[in-house]
Amino acid sequence: MAMASSSTSYKEYEIRKRNPNPKVAALLVIDMQNYFAAMAKPILQNLLTTIRLCRRASIPVIFTRHSHKSPSDYGMLDEWWNGDLVFDGTPESQLMPELDRGPHQDHVVDKNTYSAFRGTGLEDYLKERGVQEVIVTGVMTNLCCETTAREAFLRGFRVFFSTDATATSDEELHEATLKNLAYGFAYLVDCNRLDQAL
User: Fold this and answer.
1) What residues have CB less than 8 Å from 36, skipping those under 6 apart?
2) What angle do CA 186, 141, 169 make, to 5 degrees?
3) Which among 9, 65, 71, 89 has most CB atoms closer than 10 A?
4) Domain locations in the chain?
5) Coil, strand, or helix at residue 68?
6) Topology given in CATH for the domain delimited by 20-197
């Protein structure tokens, strides 16, 4: 099998195109917390646009919040990040105040690892509401967003992954995730495509 050049754009892998079905979709906003504000702020306007488009189409919006309560829930993250964790109850653990939560009573999922599905009850919450598709946004593209997207796919959800309302520490990592997901797990979307589709 031929190896692609490292400069290959994710668009070369985006051979499958589809639009979300508002009747069975949910928007996942991953870890838009104060801790990640530096990388989250550049995508904030695109994320707010995505939230607005989903609300307009009556798509439920679900926020995730990553934090740790005790060493029993650190797992491998403590070793991997050398103790640099987000601790529950701190200002850093809170969702960014700029998020469009307003009067809406959006569901918030607390998690302590990369996946929003692992030990959170999210799968049951979605299935009880007839959700068959998820639109993934937030941070970090290559960690919590990618892991959540892959798990959603493996659990039988159709996955849509935002190219312009996700972010991580550098463009190379962001692009690598988009390539992987377009190749094997997710339909890619952006604000313009969602605006036309919903």
Assistant:
1) 139, 140
2) 155
3) 65
4) 20-197
5) strand
6) Rossmann fold (3.40.50)
